[in-house]
Amino acid sequence: MNPLCHIASLVAFHHAQGAAELDAVVARQAGLSLALRAEGRSVLLHEAEEQVALTDLLAELQALPGVLGVHLVYHHAEPLNDLLREVEA
User: Fold this and answer.
1) Distance (Å, rounded) from C-alpha 22 to C-alpha 7?
2) Of 13, 19, 42, 83, whose CB is crowded by the most CB atoms within 10 A?
3) CATH 3.40.50.80: does it fit domain 4-84?
4) Per-residue pLDDT for the chain (89 aa), expressed as one digit of tens each?
5) For residue 75, which phi and psi values (nearest 5 degrees)?
């Protein structure tokens, strides 16, 4: 069986306290990274093998103190083997 790789981008709107809370989640969550932060907004990137990891992450982030909302901007799922295969020029 060829596992899928789920790639997603999220935008979180937050107060200053929410930024610190988001940073704590990024530090402990595998596959989650902070791509950009500016004036109460953070762009997060997430990779996981199962879609449920993404839905669980959305719920966790939205429940953080100081986070006003989290929106899924992009989601793509593709077989992991296809992503790892070299592309011939």
Assistant:
1) 19
2) 42
3) no
4) 678 999 999 999 999 999 999 999 999 999 999 999 999 999 999 999 999 999 999 999 999 999 999 999 999 999 988 877 887 77
5) -145, 130
